Protein backbone atom coordinates (compact mmCIF):
# COMPACT_ATOMS: atom_id res chain seq x y z
CA UNK A 1 0.00 0.00 0.00
CA UNK A 2 1.55 3.31 -1.09
CA UNK A 3 0.38 5.21 1.94
CA UNK A 4 3.44 5.72 4.08
CA UNK A 5 6.31 8.07 3.35
CA UNK A 6 8.71 5.17 3.63
CA UNK A 7 7.10 3.48 0.70
CA UNK A 8 7.74 6.67 -1.22
CA UNK A 9 11.45 6.52 -0.39
CA UNK A 10 11.52 2.87 -1.45
CA UNK A 11 9.79 3.90 -4.69
CA UNK A 12 12.41 6.65 -5.22
CA UNK A 13 15.20 4.10 -4.83
CA UNK A 14 13.50 1.58 -7.14
CA UNK A 15 12.88 4.18 -9.84
CA UNK A 16 16.48 5.49 -9.66
CA UNK A 17 17.88 1.95 -9.80
CA UNK A 18 15.67 1.23 -12.82
CA UNK A 19 17.48 4.09 -14.59
CA UNK A 20 14.75 6.71 -14.32
CA UNK A 21 15.66 10.33 -13.48
CA UNK A 22 14.22 10.99 -10.04
CA UNK A 23 13.55 13.97 -7.80
CA UNK A 24 12.34 13.86 -4.23
CA UNK A 25 10.14 16.56 -2.71
CA UNK A 26 9.82 16.83 1.08
CA UNK A 27 7.55 19.04 3.19
CA UNK A 28 10.10 20.79 5.44
CA UNK A 29 7.92 23.39 7.16
CA UNK A 30 4.22 24.05 7.68
CA UNK A 31 2.33 26.98 9.19
CA UNK A 32 -1.31 26.98 10.17
CA UNK A 33 -3.54 24.26 8.87
CA UNK A 34 -1.54 22.17 6.41
CA UNK A 35 -2.83 19.03 4.73
CA UNK A 36 0.32 16.89 5.06
CA UNK A 37 2.77 16.85 7.97
CA UNK A 38 6.44 17.83 7.88
CA UNK A 39 8.45 14.95 6.43
CA UNK A 40 5.84 13.96 3.82
CA UNK A 41 7.34 12.98 0.48
CA UNK A 42 6.50 13.11 -3.21
CA UNK A 43 8.69 11.29 -5.70
CA UNK A 44 8.76 12.52 -9.30
CA UNK A 45 10.45 11.19 -12.42
CA UNK A 46 11.68 13.02 -15.53
CA UNK A 47 8.41 12.31 -17.33
CA UNK A 48 6.41 13.95 -14.56
CA UNK A 49 5.05 10.68 -13.13
CA UNK A 50 4.70 10.92 -9.37
CA UNK A 51 3.84 8.99 -6.23
CA UNK A 52 3.00 10.25 -2.75
CA UNK A 53 1.84 13.71 -1.69
CA UNK A 54 3.00 16.96 -0.12
CA UNK A 55 -0.50 18.46 0.12
CA UNK A 56 -4.01 17.22 -0.39
CA UNK A 57 -3.49 17.54 -4.13
CA UNK A 58 -3.54 21.36 -4.13
CA UNK A 59 0.05 22.07 -5.13
CA UNK A 60 1.35 18.74 -6.44
CA UNK A 61 1.08 19.97 -10.03
CA UNK A 62 3.40 22.91 -9.35
CA UNK A 63 5.85 20.75 -7.37
CA UNK A 64 5.99 18.21 -10.19
CA UNK A 65 6.72 21.00 -12.69
CA UNK A 66 9.57 22.36 -10.54
CA UNK A 67 10.86 18.84 -9.91
CA UNK A 68 11.22 18.20 -13.62
CA UNK A 69 13.43 21.34 -13.73
CA UNK A 70 15.43 20.15 -10.73
CA UNK A 71 16.01 16.87 -12.57
CA UNK A 72 17.19 18.93 -15.56
CA UNK A 73 19.68 21.23 -13.81
CA UNK A 74 20.45 19.16 -10.70
CA UNK A 75 20.08 22.13 -8.33
CA UNK A 76 17.99 21.57 -5.21
CA UNK A 77 15.52 24.29 -4.32
CA UNK A 78 12.95 25.23 -1.70
CA UNK A 79 9.42 26.12 -2.80
CA UNK A 80 6.81 27.91 -0.75
CA UNK A 81 3.05 27.72 -1.15
CA UNK A 82 0.24 29.39 0.70
CA UNK A 83 -2.70 31.75 0.41
CA UNK A 84 -0.35 34.75 0.80
CA UNK A 85 1.63 33.54 -2.19
CA UNK A 86 1.27 35.63 -5.35
CA UNK A 87 0.34 32.48 -7.25
CA UNK A 88 -2.42 31.77 -4.75
CA UNK A 89 -5.12 31.90 -7.38
CA UNK A 90 -3.29 29.33 -9.45
CA UNK A 91 -1.70 27.04 -6.90
CA UNK A 92 -2.48 27.77 -3.30
CA UNK A 93 -3.72 25.89 -0.30
CA UNK A 94 -7.44 26.28 0.09
CA UNK A 95 -7.10 25.33 3.75
CA UNK A 96 -5.35 28.65 4.45
CA UNK A 97 -2.05 27.13 5.55
CA UNK A 98 1.44 27.62 4.17
CA UNK A 99 4.03 24.99 3.38
CA UNK A 100 7.68 24.91 2.29
CA UNK A 101 8.79 22.05 0.11
CA UNK A 102 12.42 21.05 -0.51
CA UNK A 103 12.98 19.49 -3.94
CA UNK A 104 16.21 17.61 -4.67
CA UNK A 105 17.49 15.32 -7.39
CA UNK A 106 18.44 11.72 -6.60
CA UNK A 107 21.91 11.30 -8.08
CA UNK B 1 20.08 13.00 -2.52
CA UNK B 2 22.80 10.52 -3.21
CA UNK B 3 21.35 7.16 -4.34
CA UNK B 4 23.79 5.42 -1.96
CA UNK B 5 22.39 7.46 0.95
CA UNK B 6 18.82 6.74 -0.13
CA UNK B 7 19.56 3.00 -0.40
CA UNK B 8 21.27 2.99 3.03
CA UNK B 9 18.28 4.79 4.55
CA UNK B 10 15.84 2.28 3.05
CA UNK B 11 18.01 -0.65 4.19
CA UNK B 12 18.05 0.61 7.79
CA UNK B 13 14.30 1.09 7.65
CA UNK B 14 13.77 -2.44 6.32
CA UNK B 15 15.88 -3.78 9.20
CA UNK B 16 13.66 -1.84 11.67
CA UNK B 17 16.47 0.51 12.70
CA UNK B 18 15.88 4.25 13.03
CA UNK B 19 17.86 6.89 11.11
CA UNK B 20 17.99 10.66 10.79
CA UNK B 21 18.92 12.26 7.47
CA UNK B 22 20.51 15.67 8.03
CA UNK B 23 20.10 18.08 5.10
CA UNK B 24 21.59 21.58 4.87
CA UNK B 25 18.77 23.19 2.93
CA UNK B 26 20.92 26.02 1.52
CA UNK B 27 23.86 23.94 0.27
CA UNK B 28 22.10 20.61 -0.26
CA UNK B 29 24.82 18.87 1.79
CA UNK B 30 23.50 15.67 3.37
CA UNK B 31 24.52 12.94 5.76
CA UNK B 32 22.74 9.92 7.21
CA UNK B 33 23.02 9.25 10.94
CA UNK B 34 22.10 5.73 12.09
CA UNK B 35 20.37 5.30 15.46
CA UNK B 36 23.41 3.51 16.88
CA UNK B 37 25.66 6.46 15.96
CA UNK B 38 23.48 9.24 17.37
CA UNK B 39 25.06 9.24 20.85
CA UNK B 40 28.51 10.00 19.38
CA UNK B 41 27.22 12.58 16.89
CA UNK B 42 27.90 16.32 17.36
CA UNK B 43 24.13 16.86 17.01
CA UNK B 44 23.32 14.05 19.49
CA UNK B 45 20.94 16.13 21.58
CA UNK B 46 18.68 17.44 18.82
CA UNK B 47 18.80 14.17 16.84
CA UNK B 48 17.88 12.17 19.95
CA UNK B 49 15.02 14.51 20.76
CA UNK B 50 13.49 14.35 17.28
CA UNK B 51 13.88 10.58 17.15
CA UNK B 52 12.09 10.15 20.47
CA UNK B 53 9.18 12.13 19.03
CA UNK B 54 9.57 10.32 15.67
CA UNK B 55 9.13 13.71 14.01
CA UNK B 56 10.95 15.23 11.07
CA UNK B 57 11.72 18.92 11.60
CA UNK B 58 13.49 22.03 10.45
CA UNK B 59 16.10 23.24 12.95
CA UNK B 60 18.46 26.22 13.05
CA UNK B 61 22.06 25.19 13.79
CA UNK B 62 24.86 27.78 13.81
CA UNK B 63 22.80 30.07 11.62
CA UNK B 64 22.10 27.30 9.10
CA UNK B 65 18.68 25.90 8.25
CA UNK B 66 18.95 22.16 8.59
CA UNK B 67 16.14 19.69 7.85
CA UNK B 68 16.05 16.44 9.81
CA UNK B 69 14.23 13.59 8.08
CA UNK B 70 13.45 11.23 10.95
CA UNK B 71 12.79 7.62 9.99
CA UNK B 72 11.46 5.59 12.89
CA UNK B 73 10.63 1.94 12.12
CA UNK B 74 6.98 1.38 11.18
CA UNK B 75 4.91 0.34 14.16
CA UNK B 76 4.26 -3.38 14.32
CA UNK B 77 1.65 -5.43 16.14
CA UNK B 78 2.58 -8.95 17.19
CA UNK B 79 -0.35 -11.14 18.23
CA UNK B 80 -0.50 -14.60 19.78
CA UNK B 81 -3.67 -16.29 18.60
CA UNK B 82 -4.90 -16.93 15.07
CA UNK B 83 -8.41 -16.37 16.35
CA UNK B 84 -11.58 -14.60 15.24
CA UNK B 85 -10.47 -11.25 16.74
CA UNK B 86 -7.11 -11.33 14.96
CA UNK B 87 -8.90 -12.20 11.70
CA UNK B 88 -10.80 -8.93 12.10
CA UNK B 89 -7.62 -7.08 13.07
CA UNK B 90 -5.85 -8.04 9.83
CA UNK B 91 -7.63 -5.71 7.37
CA UNK B 92 -7.88 -2.93 9.98
CA UNK B 93 -4.15 -3.05 10.75
CA UNK B 94 -3.40 -2.85 7.05
CA UNK B 95 -5.42 0.35 6.68
CA UNK B 96 -3.66 1.79 9.73
CA UNK B 97 -0.19 0.97 8.31
CA UNK B 98 0.51 -1.31 11.24
CA UNK B 99 2.60 -4.37 10.31
CA UNK B 100 0.70 -7.33 11.73
CA UNK B 101 2.37 -10.60 12.73
CA UNK B 102 0.23 -13.47 14.03
CA UNK B 103 1.74 -16.33 15.98
CA UNK B 104 -0.13 -19.55 16.75
CA UNK B 105 1.37 -23.05 16.98
CA UNK B 106 -2.06 -24.61 16.39
CA UNK B 107 -2.05 -25.33 12.67
CA UNK B 108 -5.84 -25.73 12.59
CA UNK B 109 -6.15 -22.06 13.53
CA UNK B 110 -3.16 -20.62 11.70
CA UNK B 111 -4.19 -21.30 8.12
CA UNK B 112 -3.54 -19.05 5.11
CA UNK B 113 -7.26 -19.38 4.20
CA UNK B 114 -8.22 -17.72 7.46
CA UNK B 115 -5.37 -15.20 7.24
CA UNK B 116 -4.62 -14.13 3.69
CA UNK B 117 -1.99 -11.37 3.30
CA UNK B 118 -0.79 -11.62 6.91
CA UNK B 119 2.57 -12.70 8.30
CA UNK B 120 1.49 -15.92 9.98
CA UNK B 121 3.93 -17.97 12.07
CA UNK B 122 2.84 -21.51 13.00
CA UNK B 123 5.34 -21.69 15.84
CA UNK B 124 5.46 -21.47 19.63
CA UNK B 125 5.76 -17.84 20.71
CA UNK B 126 9.15 -18.22 22.40
CA UNK B 127 10.69 -19.52 19.15
CA UNK B 128 8.86 -17.02 16.95
CA UNK B 129 9.64 -14.03 19.17
CA UNK B 130 13.32 -14.94 19.43
CA UNK B 131 13.56 -14.59 15.66
CA UNK B 132 11.25 -11.56 15.34
CA UNK B 133 12.70 -9.53 18.19
CA UNK B 134 10.44 -7.18 20.11
CA UNK B 135 11.48 -3.52 20.03
CA UNK B 136 10.21 -0.12 21.16
CA UNK B 137 8.17 0.15 17.96
CA UNK B 138 6.28 -3.09 18.61
CA UNK B 139 2.94 -3.72 20.33
CA UNK B 140 2.32 -7.20 21.75
CA UNK B 141 -1.19 -8.62 22.08
CA UNK B 142 -2.10 -11.97 23.66
CA UNK B 143 -5.42 -13.35 22.42
CA UNK B 144 -5.47 -17.14 22.79
CA UNK B 145 -6.79 -17.45 26.39
CA UNK B 146 -4.36 -20.37 26.60
CA UNK B 147 -1.57 -19.79 29.13
CA UNK B 148 0.65 -22.30 27.29
CA UNK B 149 0.67 -19.95 24.28
CA UNK B 150 0.02 -16.50 25.76
CA UNK B 151 2.31 -16.61 28.81
CA UNK B 152 5.64 -17.17 26.99
CA UNK B 153 4.69 -14.31 24.67
CA UNK B 154 3.74 -12.00 27.54
CA UNK B 155 6.95 -12.85 29.39
CA UNK B 156 9.02 -11.97 26.33
CA UNK B 157 7.03 -8.75 25.85
CA UNK B 158 7.52 -7.69 29.48
CA UNK B 159 11.27 -8.26 29.18
CA UNK B 160 11.33 -6.10 26.02
CA UNK B 161 10.80 -2.39 25.38
CA UNK B 162 7.47 -2.96 23.54
CA UNK B 163 5.43 0.26 23.56
CA UNK B 164 2.22 -1.64 24.27
CA UNK B 165 1.39 -4.96 25.92
CA UNK B 166 -2.20 -6.18 26.09
CA UNK B 167 -3.89 -9.44 27.05
CA UNK B 168 -7.43 -10.64 26.45
CA UNK B 169 -9.37 -12.17 29.29
CA UNK B 170 -11.86 -11.53 32.04
CA UNK B 171 -10.75 -9.97 35.32
CA UNK B 172 -10.66 -13.49 36.80
CA UNK B 173 -8.51 -14.84 33.97
CA UNK B 174 -6.22 -11.85 34.33
CA UNK B 175 -5.94 -12.27 38.11
CA UNK B 176 -4.70 -15.84 37.58
CA UNK B 177 -2.34 -14.56 34.87
CA UNK B 178 -0.94 -11.97 37.29
CA UNK B 179 -0.28 -14.74 39.85
CA UNK B 180 1.57 -16.84 37.27
CA UNK B 181 3.68 -13.90 36.10
CA UNK B 182 4.47 -12.93 39.70
CA UNK B 183 5.66 -16.43 40.48
CA UNK B 184 7.73 -16.32 37.29
CA UNK B 185 9.55 -13.37 38.89
CA UNK B 186 7.91 -10.31 37.34
CA UNK B 187 7.35 -7.43 39.73
CA UNK B 188 4.22 -5.35 40.12
CA UNK B 189 5.45 -2.51 37.88
CA UNK B 190 6.28 -4.92 35.05
CA UNK B 191 2.91 -6.67 35.30
CA UNK B 192 1.13 -3.28 35.42
CA UNK B 193 2.37 -2.65 31.86
CA UNK B 194 -0.23 -5.16 30.62
CA UNK B 195 -3.42 -3.55 29.36
CA UNK B 196 -6.13 -5.79 30.82
CA UNK B 197 -9.02 -5.76 30.26
CA UNK B 198 -7.66 -5.12 26.80
CA UNK B 199 -8.83 -2.33 24.50
CA UNK B 200 -10.58 1.01 24.77
CA UNK B 201 -13.85 0.85 26.69
CA UNK B 202 -16.26 1.19 23.78
CA UNK B 203 -18.53 -1.62 24.92
CA UNK B 204 -17.15 -3.92 22.22
CA UNK B 205 -19.11 -7.15 21.71
CA UNK B 206 -18.31 -8.69 18.34
CA UNK B 207 -14.79 -9.84 17.36
CA UNK B 208 -14.49 -6.89 14.95
CA UNK B 209 -15.51 -4.43 17.67
CA UNK B 210 -12.97 -5.94 20.06
CA UNK B 211 -10.32 -5.69 17.31
CA UNK B 212 -11.27 -2.02 16.88
CA UNK B 213 -11.03 -1.39 20.64
CA UNK B 214 -7.58 -3.03 20.78
CA UNK B 215 -6.22 -1.19 17.73
CA UNK B 216 -7.71 2.07 19.05
CA UNK B 217 -5.85 1.54 22.33
CA UNK B 218 -2.62 0.77 20.46
CA UNK B 219 -2.91 3.92 18.31
CA UNK B 220 -3.74 5.97 21.40
CA UNK B 221 -0.63 4.62 23.18
CA UNK B 222 1.48 5.34 20.11
CA UNK B 223 0.25 8.87 19.45
CA UNK B 224 -1.08 9.96 22.83
CA UNK B 225 -4.51 11.48 23.29
CA UNK B 226 -4.71 15.13 22.23
CA UNK B 227 -8.03 16.43 23.52
CA UNK B 228 -8.61 17.23 27.16
CA UNK B 229 -11.94 15.99 28.50
CA UNK B 230 -14.45 18.81 28.91
What does the secondary structure layout of this molecule look like, with pairings?
The complex is a heterodimer of chains A (107) and B (230).
Chain A: H1 5-17, E1 22-31, E2 41-45, E3 50-52, H2 60-73, E4 77-82, E5 98-106
Chain B: H1 3-14, E1 19-24, E2 30-34, H2 44-53, E3 57-61, E4 64-71, E5 76-80, H3 84-95, E6 99-103, E7 119-121, H4 125-132, E8 138-142, H5 147-159, E9 164-167, H6 171-183, H7 188-191, E10 194-195, H8 207-223
Parallel strand pairs in B: 5-6, 5-8, 6-7, 8-9, 9-10
Antiparallel strand pairs in B: 1-2, 1-4, 3-4
Question: How would you explain this protein's 3D organization?
Answer:
The complex is a heterodimer of chains A (107) and B (230). Chain A is α+β, with helices and mostly antiparallel strands. Helices cover 25% and strands 31% of the residues of chain A. Chain A contains two helices and five strands. Chain A has helices at residues 5-17, 60-73; strands at 22-31, 41-45, 50-52, 77-82, 98-106. Chain B has 230 residues and is of the alpha/beta class. Chain B folds into two domains: 3-71, no CATH class; 76-223, 3-Layer(aba) Sandwich (Rossmann fold). Chain B is 39% helix and 21% strand. Chain B has helices at 3-14, 44-53, 84-95, 125-132, 147-159, 171-183, 188-191, 207-223, and strands at residues 19-24, 30-34, 57-61, 64-71, 76-80, 99-103, 119-121, 138-142, 164-167, 194-195. The radius of gyration of chain B is 20 Å and the shape is elongated. The N and C termini of chain B lie far apart (47 Å).
Amino acid sequence: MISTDTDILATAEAWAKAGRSVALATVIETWGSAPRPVGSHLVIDGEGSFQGSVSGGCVEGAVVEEAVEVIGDGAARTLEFGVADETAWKVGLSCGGRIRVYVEKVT
Amino acid sequence: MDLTTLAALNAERAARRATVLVTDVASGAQRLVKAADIAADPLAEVLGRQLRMAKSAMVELDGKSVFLTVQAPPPRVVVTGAVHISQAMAPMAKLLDLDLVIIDPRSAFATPERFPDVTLLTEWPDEALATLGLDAYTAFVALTHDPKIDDPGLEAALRSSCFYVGALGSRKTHARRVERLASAGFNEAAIARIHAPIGLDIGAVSPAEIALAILGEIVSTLRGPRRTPA
